[in-house]
Amino acid sequence: MINRAVFCMLISVFIVQGFIQASSVRVHAETTDVILATTTSTQDTGLLDELLPVFQKKTGFRIKTIAVGSGQAMAMGKKGEADVLLVHSPEDELKFMKEGYGKTRRLVMHNNFIISGPPEDPAGIAKSANAAGAFKRIAGSGSLFISRGDNSGTHAREKALWKKCGINPEGGKWYQQTGLGMGQTLSVAAEKKGYCLTDMATFLSMKDRLGVKAFMEGDGSLLNIYHVIELDSSRFPKINSRGGKSFADFIVSPAAQKIINNFGRARFGHPLYYPDAGKTEKSIGR
Amino acid sequence: MDLLADGVIRAFRLIINLDPEVAEITLLSLRISGSATLLGLVIGIASGTAIALASFPGKRLLISVINTGMGLPPVVVGLFVSVMLWRSGPLGFIGMLYTPAAMIAAQTIIAVPIIAGITIAAMQNLPENLRLQILSLGASRPRTVWMLMLEARLPLLAGVMAGFGGAVSEVGASIMVGGNIRGYSRVLTTATVMETGKGNFELAIALGIILLILAFIVTAVLTLVQQRGGRR
User: Is A26 at the interface with chain B, CB within 8 A?
Assistant: First the structure.
């Protein structure tokens, strides 16, 4: 009986200690926490794991990464639920800025989208000249296409491509939406032997396991551009604008750009992202 | 099948080497779900006992509502807690979203109806005249309630186990209110989802196995307490 009581007390002390720790972190959190709403790809590739410790050590701010699609990240921004955004959906970003939610928007880096598909290439997209041509072939042959369907930056780009070739894929039997992140959507596409639009970084980290092939590599129309957006603090008094600015300044700084440039070289033989701080979208070919 | 085997091997390697990040994630899972269970235990058993022993109009309706709550979908809880805790939400001023404390709150909401529902069933299952018997022996009201609880300890502990199970295995609410922030609010379930998304299936399986082991250990300890008390 006594044993049991002591044991229960020990367990309770352990748990309550955790509880107190959790809540004390919170009080301390108010001033130093910065909420970064970003896309799943920056987290899934591991880039943020390299960047954030450097930033945190340098500035003392702690970044809370909320990895969602670009669409959801901007929705969070529109409600003032995030302090800074790292997103890749340029058209939506311009709209976001125009509506006055953001204070600054700076170019951070880019890589490329590609079309992933089964090596047999049933739609014969290898023969097409560009991504729009490939999409036409996929629709024309009724080959399976797996879409993110989640308003992410990748999904926005995919919709723009369908629009460009004048095809409305919705409702087609060959067109399916997962509503999941990039990695999972890529897995579904591979499993069903379908095509999908993906960013290069996620593709590289999964291709060996999935047995998929990249198409439209180096197509200039498939640039995938990331911007960092500071939110307008006059609109949202509760946001940590100092922290948000600090992170935005950091990610375009030479130190961070160097990390971005080197990231993934060891594992994949070439970088996953190309640093672009200070450049314009035009100069990188958009 | 290779993948599963690799996952199992990886799991044991992570455990044996005491991988610091995995250890931290595991401890955080235990702490958050443990706190939620502890809170759920206090609230659930107290309210469940009160409801079972009292008689009032609408009692059956309330019990139906609680029993429905036993199957509360975690994502709905997550959404509700998020909306409440948003900076623009009614409780936004506490600044609790994306913290372990928010996860404890969400998991407590999940655990309470489970524990309360089982408590109600357990208390109602006691023989009708037991209460009268205890009262007639001159026990005070609090003492009577305590003795009834002791009598129902087996199902009550089963309720606590079910509550812990509900809390520790839940992922939808934890991702929404905790944000799966590395080294801060990342627990076993959210890490498993993330690693699956990254395509690290082996690591995801390993984390899943560690979660099962954790749940087994906690439940085994509770079962030990339960069965020991049961024999007396």
Answer: yes
